[in-house]
């Protein structure tokens, strides 16, 4: 069977059902090999040699949690689920999540995250994936990095290769297909879910088997609002799979806070420079939200769209606590804070 690719019949990539490919991979997991319609590919082993020498704190997961259900939590018959988050692992240090590494994923927007952050998160990833048109942007990044390497005396190591490209392939260009011709491609034609959601679903069995919980996503909040909203929706969809998805843009990090008690350790530079942070009740109201460590705190407050949302908030301390009975989107300013500090007019 063939499928349409930019209006032409394409023989290079016959349609592959993501789950079938992953099942093949699971069957052959001894070899860590997957078959994507004749293409064989390996998800690389995560070993000491790939991750380099252990670094201080590299063993820490960004999030730890207990396994107590939430149904009776807010009346405190049982203690609330606890989550600890260390966004510095994405912003200033380590650049690795979880003991078994993380998935790195590139969506279809220009990569605005600072190049050194992208490089380190990519290097430390266990699985590297580009989603449809995201592969065009990854190609641009690879080419740009190769150029700056040539013009720079400080040699940077080459970027690790992509493990897989997924998508309905309506955005990847012929040039990009050619550029990544040896990279396995998994076709996800379903038009009832976004390519981003489908990409995580395709990788889920691999993540389960290798005990990877975290997905770091290069996206951007510019461009189409429907894509931005759909990307937030993916955070909600994936929480069922006990999977943490972090959206990284040029100046923000965003993830979902599930019902429970969250402690977020904020990089001190962000506290000092009073960068923005926000709590948004997307999807459903939260009826009982209490925070500490913010400039504008909430006390057993109701949050909902059309009612109260907490945007343009900032930090009172390094440790922010949020206790909530419902999902909330947490988004915080990051990356360009040095720039912001420089731009602040002197009083
Ligand atoms: C109720 C409903 N609304 C809209 C759609 C259409 N739809 C939802 S997700 C999706 C796929 C989007 O693909 P993606 O690659 O994420 O975005 P693209 O840039 O191709 O629009 C489509 C077509 C649908 N299936 N059902
Ligand atoms: O403006 C955009 C466009 C796309 N995305 C995300 O990328 C994937 C893949 O997009 P394609 O257009 O199919 O290549 C899509 O599912 C979105 O999650 C985006 O964030 N912003």
Automatic annotation (TrEMBL):
SUPFAM superfamilies: Thiamin pyrophosphokinase, catalytic domain (SSF63999), Thiamin pyrophosphokinase, substrate-binding domain (SSF63862). InterPro entries: Thi_PPkinase, Thiamin_PyroPKinase_B1-bd, TPK_B1-bd_sf, TPK_catalytic, TPK_catalytic_sf. Pathway: Cofactor biosynthesis; thiamine diphosphate biosynthesis; thiamine diphosphate from thiamine: step 1/1. It catalyses: thiamine + UTP = thiamine diphosphate + UMP + H(+). GO terms for biological process: thiamine diphosphate biosynthetic process; thiamine metabolic process. Pfam families: TPK_B1_binding, TPK_catalytic. Residues 260-328 form the Thiamin pyrophosphokinase thiamin-binding domain. Belongs to the thiamine pyrophosphokinase family. This is Thiamine pyrophosphokinase 1.
């Amino acid at each position: 069977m063939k499928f349409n690719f930019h209006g032409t019949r394409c023989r290079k990539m016959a349609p592959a059902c993501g789950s079938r490919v992953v099942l093949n991979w699971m069957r052959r997991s001894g070899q860590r090999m997957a078959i994507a319609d004749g293409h064989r590919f390996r998800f690389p082993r995560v070993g000491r040699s790939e991750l380099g020498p252990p670094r201080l704190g590299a063993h820490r997961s960004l999030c730890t949690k207990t396994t107590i259900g939430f149904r009776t939590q807010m009346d405190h018959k049982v203690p609330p689920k606890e989550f600890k988050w260390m966004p510095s692992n994405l912003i200033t240090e380590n650049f690795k999540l979880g003991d078994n590494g993380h998935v790195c994923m590139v969506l279809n927007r220009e990569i605005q995250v600072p190049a050194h952050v992208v490089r380190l998160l990519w290097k430390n990833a266990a699985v590297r994936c580009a989603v449809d048109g995201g592969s065009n942007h990854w190609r641009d990044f690879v080419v740009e990095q190769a150029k700056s390497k040539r013009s720079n005396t400080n040699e940077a190591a080459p970027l690790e290769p992509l493990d897989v490209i997924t998508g309905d392939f309506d955005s990847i260009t012929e040039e990009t297909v050619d550029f990544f011709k040896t990279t396995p491609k998994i076709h996800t034609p379903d038009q009832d879910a976004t390519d981003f959601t489908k990409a995580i679903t395709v990788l889920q069995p691999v993540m389960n088997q290798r005990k990877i919980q975290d997905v770091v996503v290069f996206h951007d909040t510019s461009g189409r609002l429907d894509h931005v909203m759909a990307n937030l929706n993916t955070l909600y969809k994936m929480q069922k799979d006990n999977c943490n998805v972090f959206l990284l843009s040029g100046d923000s990090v965003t993830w979902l806070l599930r019902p429970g008690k969250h402690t977020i350790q904020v990089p001190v530079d962000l506290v000092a420079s009073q960068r923005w942070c926000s709590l948004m009740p997307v999807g459903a109201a939260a009826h009982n939200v209490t925070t500490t460590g913010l400039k504008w705190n909430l006390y057993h407050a109701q949050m909902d769209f059309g009612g109260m949302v907490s945007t343009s908030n900032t930090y009172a301390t390094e440790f922010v606590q949020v206790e909530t009975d419902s999902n909330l989107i947490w988004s915080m300013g990051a990356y360009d804070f040095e720039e912001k500090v420089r731009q602040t007019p002197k009083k």
